[in-house]
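Working notes for the structural subgroup meeting. M.R. asked for a predicted model of this chain before we commit to crystallization trials. I am recording the input and output together here so anyone reviewing the notebook later can reproduce the run.

Input as submitted:
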Amino acid sequence: MSNYVLVIDTNKKPCNPVHPGIARKLLNDRKASVFRRYPFTIILKTVSTTVLKPIQIKIDPGSKTTGIALTQGSKVIFGVELTHRGAAIKASLESRKSLRRGRRSRHTRYRMARFLNRTRRKGWLAPSLQHRVETTITWVNRLIKFAPVTCIYQELVRFDLQQLENPEISGVQYQQGELLGYEVREYLLNKWNRKCSYCDVENVALQIEHIHPSSKGGTNRISNLCLACDKCNNKKGTQDIEKFLAKKPDVLKRILSQAKRPLKDAAAVNSTRWALFSRLKDTGLPVVTGSGGLTKFNRTRLKLPKTHWLDAACVGKVETLEILTTKPLLIKATGYGTRQMCGTNKFGLPIRHRERKKFHFAFKTGDIVKAVVLCGKKIGVYVGRIATRSTGSFNISTNNGLVQGISYKYCKIIHRNDGYGYSS
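Returned structure, recorded in token form:
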């Protein structure tokens, strides 16, 4: 079942989200109209007097994808998976950097490097990291506009609820608490991509394995731990990894290098968590925090699958959850395009020119349209994001692939470009 439908009244005040069936009946009876396609929101034609039920926004920040869930008590009524474009931003900045460096080194008028005349303000984040904070805040604010949100929950990766609830806990009592092993195991699952380090098998029970055997002096440091399936773990036993993988030098080299590799995605989340927390507090709503270990503990106890939006629903103190939706809204940050007027190849040489005109026949690249083609070779109905051309022949990116050469005459806008792509 899809997400619940968000509702606002005629004064644009948020009302209680409703089941898709109820929303359909309100639209058929002409008691409401479609206000927004993504997230799907309807606007009532009267002032609502219904008593509002408090809703919580729960956020599981991620390096590449952030999960967001709306809960009403123990009911999960809305899910979002927001895919960031931090890697694309980093690549664009590196490209710009190389082009500028190339210009400075040519036999032209000397251009002084601009490294030293810019100061960074307190709390500065790299653009690829700041983007993660901004896109998450954008969607939190949008959901607050369309739902009666009373509280925000955020997963702060290093927060330890066991320590907060009992400040006096220490020693063995702390090590053998309810969250024993969850923080370490979750870290290793992310670091080793949730598969056996030795044979790459997936979707099986994985065990924590000492790269250098503990019986031969190996420590419990994170850099000495990996994941192994039961078969590989038993086969390796107490052998040194060099002897165990003597016939697989490539696997040995990969494991030893990956063991020392820092977890880049975890570092990105840790760099932005406090900036996001601060921005969430600026909304004026109370912000409750939970640890990654507690989220994993809740999800495992409730036997829920590993997805970003369900992880978000499990943030904080959770007794039970009733999942009323199975299809989250998938959002991908696409940006608004580029301001570069000259396209270049990988060597920095100009290969094309981009015109300044952004709108063609009242359409703009990034708009989501519905095209109903009634004749010709491409008869059919296509819904997706368009790339406009001055000729009036557009390309449409649908869930089934790219459709080229659709005339603007067949297109009807269903959602204006807002820097995001959507699917469900």
